[in-house]
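Ticket #4471: structure export looks truncated?
Reporter: QA, pipeline team
Priority: medium

Steps to reproduce: submit the single chain below to the structure queue and open the exported record.
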Amino acid sequence: MTKRNFKSLIALVLLTLFLQACNIPLLQQSKISVEDQAKTIVVQTLTAQGNGGNDIQPTTEEAPLPSFTLTPTEISISTSTLTPTLDHATVTVSVDTNCRTGPGKIYDRVGGLLVGETAEVVGKSSEGNYWIIENPDAAGICWLWGYYATVVGSTKHLAIHTPPPTPTPIYHWTGVWTTSHGVTGFPHLTFIVTLTQTDNNVSGGFSDGGFTVTLEGSLSSDWQLFTGTWDDGGDSGPFEWKMISVNQFIGNRNNGDYEWCGARNGADIPSPCKGP
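Actual output as written to the record:
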């Protein structure tokens, strides 16, 4: 092919591509330039004619990969809210247990934790044998004996509580008591017993047909239970009385062989008599 014919061929190819440009998809136009396409066609034509296709090398470029920019709405950020776990302890009991204003029966009962109930623990006693809990039955806190208690959770953060001042017991044994003594189901004897209490100790006695019977003993921490020994000069034995009100008590003598109860200040003799 002559040089003039070659130029004419180039012009013809360029014209053809120009006329077809409107029908070429946009994506293909962006991949290879018109000039490169023309050179490629010329080479292919020359090769087909056997006229040395190596004179003109086609120019090709590898199309760049499309780039993408994510907008804020296309970006998904997974977040999780972490809730801090605070130290927390709860308590249950294996036996129904009273809850009081302090450690021991001398303190008022203000609630109780029953089997199957759970309460929050907010403190512990300085001696370690009581838990201070949220009162299950009323507002505020109370002291729970730890013998039947099972605590779950961390107790390291719990405040140490010292026992509050001991309340003045409502029970006091000093006075003159009308007592009833005998075997259950049989007629009883009546004895007028005079007692004197000094702190946790009680002493007193009564007369029985010419015999003087003395009573000596001590009280529980709340002064409700009076445990001691009777002595008539020739015989003696144990007894146990328990106040069920400020003017009544129930009890027994000789480890339950006899019942022995009493009242004062006009109160009725308790029935049943035997206790505690």
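Status: closed, not a bug. The export was complete when the record was re-opened. Leaving a note from the reviewer for reference: The two ends are 135 Å apart (CA to CA).
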